[in-house]
Amino acid sequence: MCKGEKLKSITLNCIEKLQIQSGANVRAVVSDQGSNFKELVKSLGISAEKPYFIVNEKKFYYFYDVPHLIKSVRNNILQYDITFKDNKGATWKHIQAFYKSYECKPLRLAPKLTHMHINSNNFQKMRVKYAVQVFNESVAGGFSTFVSFKALLGGAAGTAEFLEKFDKLFDLFNSSKYRNAKQYNLAFMRADYQLAFL
Fold first, then answer.
1. Which residues form the Transposable element P transposase-like GTP-binding insertion domain (predicted)?
2. Which domain holds residue 145?
């Protein structure tokens, strides 16, 4: 495994070569969340308040890869209630209650949400695929339907909003096509709705 300082040298060298030799307009660096990349982030002086580093008077934003961030968020909500914008809350207890309310019924509002998603073992918790499926549009839609019919109470509207936002965030940060049925899955083009959502 490459250490943070060595990664810093490699990263800066790659940016310089991409920009000077190929003319690429590098704007961001993306990595996973390994300990060596956390060292890189620290050595570049990146923080929540300053999510970028500067090379030759140009800003370069740093992101952890979105699929693994989604997995981290899912693993955190398994253990902790999450507070977000305007003091709204999201909790795994609401997602469990939603699943339990229909798990034995033939018609399910969120067929992608299964027993395995709710009661994951340690191996399943490592799979990005399962985390992304929890924050899926169908799960968010089914959950929101339950909330609107008051089948889930106790602040469940916050969890519904949280699920919807993470579905859109995942789509937006994994977008690449100019045509797609899902609006937030269209290639990022700085459209007003994309910028407003961010």
1. 68-180
2. 67-185
Q: What is the DSSP letter of 152?
A: S
The encoded tokens of residue 115 equal 């027993």
Q: How far apart are CA 91 and CA 177, in angstroms?
A: 33
Question: Distances in Å between the alpha carbon of 80 and those of 61, 74, 85, 99, 176?
Answer: 29, 10, 16, 18, 33
191 in any annotated domain: no
* Whole-angstrom distance, CA of residue 180 vs CA of residue 166: 18
**pTM, two decimal places:** 0.80
Residues 58 and 72 in one domain: no
Query: Which DSSP letter does residue 151 get?
Result: S
> How much is the pLDDT for 54?
93
Phi then psi for residue 83, to 5 deg, are -105, 135
Q: Which residue stretches of 44-155 are H helix?
A: 66-79, 92-102, 115-118, 122-125, 128-134, 137-148
